Amino acid sequence: MLWPGLLIVLIYSYGPMLGIVIAFQKYIPAKGFFDSQWVGLANFKYFWSLPDTLQVLGNTVFIAFMKIITGLIVPITAALLLNEIAAKFVKRSVQTLIYLPHFLSWVILGGILIDLLSPSTGIVNSLLVAVGVEPIYFLGSNQWFPYVLVLSNIWKEFGFSTIIYLAALTSINPTLYEAAVVDGANRLRQTWHVTLPGMRPIIVLMATLSLGSILNAGFDQVFNLYSPQVYESGDIIDTFVYRMGLINAQYGPATAIGLLSSVVSCIFISGTYFLAYRFANYRIF
Known about the structure:
This protein has 285 residues and is mainly α. The protein has 14 helices and two strands.
């Protein structure tokens, strides 16, 4: 029963890894792996010599870090607020509404955001004009674009992430709340002294595991929203590799950048699993 799944993994996950050799070649598709010129680490040196390298790395880390922070704070807050809703119908309705964006692709959500944030016809700028504020070109401004990415990512993902924290809330012993009430604790103090400590293991686990995606700022989202106007603040490693490899046909340098990013991500993931085991007693095996 394992053979079909194993073959699929070997063909689609391990087989393509042979292409790593392109990172060390001046790869020409017509010549293939075996006849393309071997250049060693030249592609890596070329990447570090580019004037946009530090800017792309800085954008990637900044956007990814902001997504990690907000991806923890917002779902936890939402779970705590939902937990306070007594009416089951209202609670389920709110849950459904906030979960829905997760199941839509960035192609769809990108189109929605472009319409909403349009400087001429978008509803957001229409409201700004109504209160006397000049229209803002959110998707064409280097000042605003990174924050649009972070906020739209919250909108899409926080509802689904809330499920994990709601599940953590169900594991808290109800007698702890009863004891807190006897001691005179109001709802806020119950949340601070009972709920959050009870959620601490899952919070630590999610925080440590999320560090593995520090170089993953979200290709699908950025690709569907960015333009040359915001390359300065919105260009990330994945979109940089896409343009270099598929648009400019610089296969060797693009593969080298992707390999370097994968190695760094692997190191971060290994470190986060160790931290998850150390502080949250989480083990893969």
